[in-house]
């Protein structure tokens, strides 16, 4: 399959936090505290100091920003092997089991799906509407603006109004798929599948041959959709909080 050490740096770079810092192979991300990916420490390889000292630094770094310390631990990433045990001893526990799936790009796409290099106001409206909290929505919109090019922003309209969207971040020969959203009134119509196919086709044209995506492990419907489109499970990760 795929080595997490290949995908994880791409995933971190694809959805950049407002503040980013490193302790050797540990990546510290902080924004407004909503989206876990950009408000967590990603231990992708060994830290640049004693592990317990590194955990202390992480906890102090988040405390200074008024955020709870959070670690994103990925299966197969040894940074170090006993990090979960060390966090457990400090009162942390794992949550939000997430599956990373990989597939290939290509296909015929969908001519009804508009794809651009940057999001417009209607795209951002659909994207932030799913947040539920205005501050959460603002954090997500700001993260969109920090995405490094090239990126693909897909939008499908019905009767002149946006109905479904999706994003692909291109890098390292991969297309990272995320931001898949469907307006509630248009769900269960196959729009997510159409967005996915359009993005995968466009990504191949842009030179990306493979794709990755992240989906919560209990989202059976989404996993079934992605599996039906040729994506296979690669590994899992979880967020550890205290």
What is this entry, summarized?
The chain is an alpha+beta fold and 242 residues long. It has two domains: 4-99; 106-208, Aminopeptidase. 32% of the residues lie in helices and 33% in strands.
Structure description:
The protein is α+β, with helices and mostly antiparallel strands and about 240 residues long. The chain folds into two domains: about 5-100; about 105-210, Gcn5-related N-acetyltransferase (GNAT) (Aminopeptidase), CATH 3.40.630. The chain contains seven helices and eleven strands. The strands form two sheets. It has an eight-stranded mixed sheet with strand order 4-11-5-10-9-8-7-6, sandwiched between helices. It has a three-stranded antiparallel sheet with strand order 1-2-3, covered by helices on one side. α6 links the parallel β9 (about 175-180) and β10 (about 210-215). It starts with a helix and ends with a strand. The mean pLDDT is about 95.
Which residue ranges are poorly predicted, with pLDDT under 50 across at least 5 consecutive positions? none
**Which term fits the overall shape?**
globular
CATH architecture of the largest domain: 3-Layer(aba) Sandwich
Please count the beta strands (DSSP E, at least 2 residues each).
Answer: 11
Number of domains: 2
Structural class: alpha+beta
| Strand order in the largest sheet | 4-11-5-10-9-8-7-6
The biggest beta sheet reads: 8 strands, mixed
Number of DSSP helical runs: 7
What integer is the average pLDDT? 94
Roughly how many Å apart are the termini? 32 Å
The percentage helix is 25-40%
* The CATH fourth-level homologous superfamily of the largest domain: Gcn5-related N-acetyltransferase (GNAT)
CATH class of the largest domain: Alpha Beta
The ordered H/E elements are HEEEHEHEEHHEEEHEHE
What share of residues are in beta strands? 25-35%
Radius of gyration: 18 Å
For this structure, the CATH topology of the largest domain is Aminopeptidase
Pfam family, one: Rv0428c_C
Protein name: GNAT family N-acetyltransferase
Organism: Caulobacter segnis
Domain N-acetyltransferase: 113-242
